[in-house]
Amino acid sequence: MLGIFGHPIAHSLSPKMHQAALQATGLASEYVYLPFDVVSQDLSLAVGALRALHARGVNVTIPHKEAVIPLLDQLDCQAGAIGAVNVIVNDRGWLTGYNTDGIGFIRALKEEGGVDPGGKKILVFGAGGAARAVCAALATSGSAEILVVNRTIDRAESVAEMVKSLGTQAAALPFSSGKLREEVEKADIIVNTTSVGLYPAGESLLTAYQGCLKRRHLVCDIIYHPRETLMLSQAKTYGCSTLSGMGMLLFQGVEAFKLWTGVEAPVEVMRKALEENLC
Ligand code: ATR
């Protein structure tokens, strides 16, 4: 058995994506992928049930990505640096936590955006769990420098410290900084990891800085609903390349599938399942 623990969970696209992958790889007789609506006070029981039921593993999503850590036996090093887990693998009762969100973002960047983050200057909006995953993966993929911009500066500083601990140059800035315009101009890749722009609100953190965008910029949003956020449509107006959050959603799932089954995930089947079920 496979599945996803979260609350709320009804709108998760992961069951559709992974069931399609299990069917396509002939593994549907061995595994089923189910959504589990787990409230915070039941998380410990739910993790215990993985052991009791010999489930192979689960995805973990909001609000449990951090709270689940003390309930596991071991963390992979990326998950440890990030401080959040989105995949649990159960090896005969021994539970290991992984984080495939960041590697999912890097694969989307390379395979959908056609860009290698190696040597690039990256400006990241946000300093939550998603930002930590994206920044850790960028740092370990050879990015030259990461600037973390966040409303709450303490959180941005904490992410910048994590990036430096992984051996990559980093700095933190608040949105109010007068240097932000210049930093947008200097960046190669701009990534929104905040919830600003999420359906139905049509907002963008780039609105005040869109005039600094050049054709050479790649602008990424980890939001996939809507498929094209206001930030991405602003970037397109200035001739930039853009990348939506759909690729990160797809490739975090592709990486998780391999961890559980040992089988290469059918990427195009999973992409089709997402596209069919995204509004
Ligand atoms: P996740 O784990 O999905 O990253 P999170 O930890 O709640 O979620 O982080 C949300 C991010 O979106 C944070 O960077 C948050 O900024 P703060 O750290 O200052 O709270 C950012 N965010 C959310 N709403 C925002 C808004 N209206 N303007 C700017 N940033 C916002």
Automatic annotation (TrEMBL):
<dbReference type="GO" id="GO:0008652">
    <property type="term" value="P:amino acid biosynthetic process"/>
</dbReference>
<dbReference type="GO" id="GO:0019632">
    <property type="term" value="P:shikimate metabolic process"/>
</dbReference>
<comment type="pathway">
    <text>Metabolic intermediate biosynthesis; chorismate biosynthesis; chorismate from D-erythrose 4-phosphate and phosphoenolpyruvate: step 4/7.</text>
</comment>
<feature type="binding site">
    <location>
        <position position="86"/>
    </location>
    <ligand>
        <name>shikimate</name>
    </ligand>
</feature>
<dbReference type="Pfam" id="PF08501">
    <property type="entry name" value="Shikimate_dh_N"/>
</dbReference>
<comment type="pathway">
    <text>Aromatic compound metabolism; 3,4-dihydroxybenzoate biosynthesis; 3-dehydroquinate from D-quinate (NAD(+) route).</text>
</comment>
<comment type="function">
    <text>Involved in the biosynthesis of the chorismate, which leads to the biosynthesis of aromatic amino acids. Catalyzes the reversible NADPH linked reduction of 3-dehydroshikimate (DHSA) to yield shikimate (SA).</text>
</comment>
<feature type="binding site">
    <location>
        <position position="222"/>
    </location>
    <ligand>
        <name>NADP(+)</name>
    </ligand>
</feature>
<protein>
    <recommendedName>
        <fullName>Shikimate dehydrogenase (NADP(+))</fullName>
        <ecNumber>1.1.1.25</ecNumber>
    </recommendedName>
</protein>
<feature type="domain" description="Quinate/shikimate 5-dehydrogenase/glutamyl-tRNA reductase">
    <location>
        <begin position="119"/>
        <end position="222"/>
    </location>
</feature>
<feature type="binding site">
    <location>
        <position position="245"/>
    </location>
    <ligand>
        <name>NADP(+)</name>
    </ligand>
</feature>
<dbReference type="InterPro" id="IPR011342">
    <property type="entry name" value="Shikimate_DH"/>
</dbReference>
<feature type="active site" description="Proton acceptor">
    <location>
        <position position="65"/>
    </location>
</feature>
<feature type="domain" description="Shikimate dehydrogenase substrate binding N-terminal">
    <location>
        <begin position="4"/>
        <end position="88"/>
    </location>
</feature>
<dbReference type="Pfam" id="PF18317">
    <property type="entry name" value="SDH_C"/>
</dbReference>
<dbReference type="GO" id="GO:0050661">
    <property type="term" value="F:NADP binding"/>
</dbReference>
<keyword id="KW-0057">Aromatic amino acid biosynthesis</keyword>
<feature type="binding site">
    <location>
        <position position="101"/>
    </location>
    <ligand>
        <name>shikimate</name>
    </ligand>
</feature>
<dbReference type="GO" id="GO:0009073">
    <property type="term" value="P:aromatic amino acid family biosynthetic process"/>
</dbReference>
<dbReference type="InterPro" id="IPR041121">
    <property type="entry name" value="SDH_C"/>
</dbReference>
<dbReference type="GO" id="GO:0052734">
    <property type="term" value="F:shikimate 3-dehydrogenase (NAD+) activity"/>
</dbReference>
<comment type="similarity">
    <text>Belongs to the shikimate dehydrogenase family.</text>
</comment>
<keyword id="KW-0560">Oxidoreductase</keyword>
<dbReference type="GO" id="GO:0004764">
    <property type="term" value="F:shikimate 3-dehydrogenase (NADP+) activity"/>
</dbReference>
<feature type="binding site">
    <location>
        <position position="61"/>
    </location>
    <ligand>
        <name>shikimate</name>
    </ligand>
</feature>
<dbReference type="InterPro" id="IPR022893">
    <property type="entry name" value="Shikimate_DH_fam"/>
</dbReference>
<dbReference type="GO" id="GO:0009423">
    <property type="term" value="P:chorismate biosynthetic process"/>
</dbReference>
<dbReference type="GO" id="GO:0030266">
    <property type="term" value="F:quinate 3-dehydrogenase (NAD+) activity"/>
</dbReference>
<comment type="subunit">
    <text>Homodimer.</text>
</comment>
<dbReference type="Pfam" id="PF01488">
    <property type="entry name" value="Shikimate_DH"/>
</dbReference>
<dbReference type="InterPro" id="IPR006151">
    <property type="entry name" value="Shikm_DH/Glu-tRNA_Rdtase"/>
</dbReference>
<feature type="binding site">
    <location>
        <begin position="150"/>
        <end position="155"/>
    </location>
    <ligand>
        <name>NADP(+)</name>
    </ligand>
</feature>
<dbReference type="InterPro" id="IPR036291">
    <property type="entry name" value="NAD(P)-bd_dom_sf"/>
</dbReference>
<feature type="binding site">
    <location>
        <position position="224"/>
    </location>
    <ligand>
        <name>shikimate</name>
    </ligand>
</feature>
<feature type="domain" description="SDH C-terminal">
    <location>
        <begin position="245"/>
        <end position="275"/>
    </location>
</feature>
<keyword id="KW-0028">Amino-acid biosynthesis</keyword>
<dbReference type="InterPro" id="IPR013708">
    <property type="entry name" value="Shikimate_DH-bd_N"/>
</dbReference>
<keyword id="KW-0521">NADP</keyword>
<feature type="binding site">
    <location>
        <begin position="12"/>
        <end position="14"/>
    </location>
    <ligand>
        <name>shikimate</name>
    </ligand>
</feature>
<feature type="binding site">
    <location>
        <position position="252"/>
    </location>
    <ligand>
        <name>shikimate</name>
    </ligand>
</feature>
<dbReference type="InterPro" id="IPR046346">
    <property type="entry name" value="Aminoacid_DH-like_N_sf"/>
</dbReference>
<feature type="binding site">
    <location>
        <begin position="126"/>
        <end position="130"/>
    </location>
    <ligand>
        <name>NADP(+)</name>
    </ligand>
</feature>
